[in-house]
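Re: beginner question about structure tokens

> Can someone show what the tokenized structure looks like for a real chain? I only ever see the sequence side.

Sure, here's an example I had lying around. Input first:
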Amino acid sequence: MNPDPWPPLPPQPDRGQRRYRVSDERLREFAKLTAYERLKWVEECANFVRLGQQAMTRYKQAMRTK
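And the corresponding structure tokens:
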């Protein structure tokens, strides 16, 4: 059997403890977007997160079957 080519995943922090910062400049640029553009941006981000979650689920399932 081949060794796992991926390093182990780090422990996941509690979602309620996550923090991030956004610059004032970035907030001003976001505020310039139309409602449609903001919604599109949010949907694209959500889709990106879902893809990552699906990949994580597949990875965990693959690890259990080894």
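Each token stands for a local structural state, so reading them left to right follows the chain. The chain has a mean pLDDT of 86.
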